[in-house]
């Protein structure tokens, strides 16, 4: 079967093509799948996309008209896919069943420590020959409290690292489930209001769903300690960017670390809020790279190959979002 893969990054391409070699023919493009590029998929039974693809009704209809029958998203996120319309069109849609937890958790800690210890500011100074310590004062994480919002595999990995720092743990899970591994680390589960009020470091590890959109809104930000650090390595839309920009403008929060790809309004902010945020030295923004390690990429690609194989064999699995009709 011939597959057209959109949004393939330079580092990803050899891994993707090697994984499919001898199994299926794959063509890799570095451009995303959007309305202006969907015509390129004509004649391909399967396409592979990223979370930055536009898979709304119009693009799905164009894909189906061009002969596409299967969409394999190389991401655990699927908020960009109109799954209801895909089902009506008789398409099969699959995703990576889980975010690679260690890559994302470790990067969340990269953001947290970089923000806390003013690493970017320090590096920019020393490159100019300025070795002053003024304005670079951080805090020990040891003895403070980490608030873990979402305690699935990624949140649990983040909690283990926090435990290694000697931090207390507060947790909240959108499914209302208490992770036994987190409990063994001494995590106390609490409602969000308490977590936001008491945590010194807050890290978001929940998927973007209707119930978690703008989970961190103006009220949540107002409840946080003035010197709290907030990290989001879970993608955009979880935080009200405009409310965050106003909070930082008021010189509240000690630091903010955001790992997002500003593709959708919920991430970039229609009013330029993200651009305003990046003007402040206590805010660190990275381009959605939390998952981007060779280990995680190999896991993602392996899952994508399996999704294609399952489609060919007529199997549905936990990764299947929409199954083709029998």
Automatic annotation (TrEMBL):
Pfam assignment, any one: 2-Hacid_dh
A single GO molecular function term of this UniProt record: NAD binding
Domain D-isomer specific 2-hydroxyacid dehydrogenase catalytic: 8-318
Keyword Protease recorded: no
Domain of life: Bacteria
Keywords: NAD, Oxidoreductase
Domain D-isomer specific 2-hydroxyacid dehydrogenase NAD-binding: 111-287
InterPro entries: D-isomer_2_OHA_DH_cat_dom, D-isomer_DH_NAD-bd, D-LDH-like, NAD(P)-bd_dom_sf
Entry similarity comment: Belongs to the D-isomer specific 2-hydroxyacid dehydrogenase family.
PANTHER family linked to this entry: 2-HYDROXYACID DEHYDROGENASE HOMOLOG 1-RELATED
Protein name from the UniProt record: 2-hydroxyacid dehydrogenase
Record organism: Actinacidiphila oryziradicis
């Amino acid at each position: 079967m011939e597959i057209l893969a959109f949004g393939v990054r330079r580092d990803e391409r050899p891994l993707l093509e090697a994984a499919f070699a001898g199994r299926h023919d794959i063509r890799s493009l570095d451009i995303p799948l959007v309305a202006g590029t969907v015509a390129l998929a004509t004649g391909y039974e399967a396409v592979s996309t990223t979370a930055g693809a536009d898979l709304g009704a119009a693009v799905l209809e164009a894909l189906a008209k061009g002969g596409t029958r299967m969409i394999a998203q190389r991401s655990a996120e699927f908020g960009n896919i109109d799954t209801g319309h895909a089902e009506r069109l008789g398409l099969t849609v699959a995703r990576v069943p889980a975010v690679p937890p260690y890559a994302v958790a470790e990067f969340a800690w990269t953001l947290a420590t970089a923000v806390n210890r003013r690493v970017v500011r320090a590096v920019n100074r020393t490159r100019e020959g300025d070795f002053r310590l003024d304005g670079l004062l951080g805090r020990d994480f040891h003895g403070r409290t980490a608030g873990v919002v979402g305690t699935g595999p990624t949140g649990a990995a983040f909690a283990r690292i926090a435990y290694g720092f000697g931090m207390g743990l507060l947790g909240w899970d959108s499914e209302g489930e208490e992770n036994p591994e987190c409990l063994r680390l001494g995590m106390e589960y609490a409602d969000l209001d308490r977590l936001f009020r008491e945590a010194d470091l807050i890290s978001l590890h929940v998927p973007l769903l209707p119930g978690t959109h703008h989970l961190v809104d103006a009220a949540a930000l107002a409840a946080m300690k003035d010197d709290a650090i907030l990290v989001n390595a879970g993608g955009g839309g979880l935080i009200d960017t405009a409310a965050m920009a106003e909070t930082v403008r008021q010189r509240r929060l000690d630091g903010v670390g955001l790992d997002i790809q500003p593709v959708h309004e919920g991430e970039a902010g229609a009013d330029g809020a993200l651009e305003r945020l990046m003007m402040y030295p206590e805010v660190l923004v990275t381009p959605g790279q939390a998952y981007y390690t060779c280990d995680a990429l190999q896991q993602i690609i392996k899952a994508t190959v399996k999704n294609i194989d399952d489609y060919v064999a007529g199997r549905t699995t936990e990764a299947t979002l929409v199954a083709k009709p029998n």
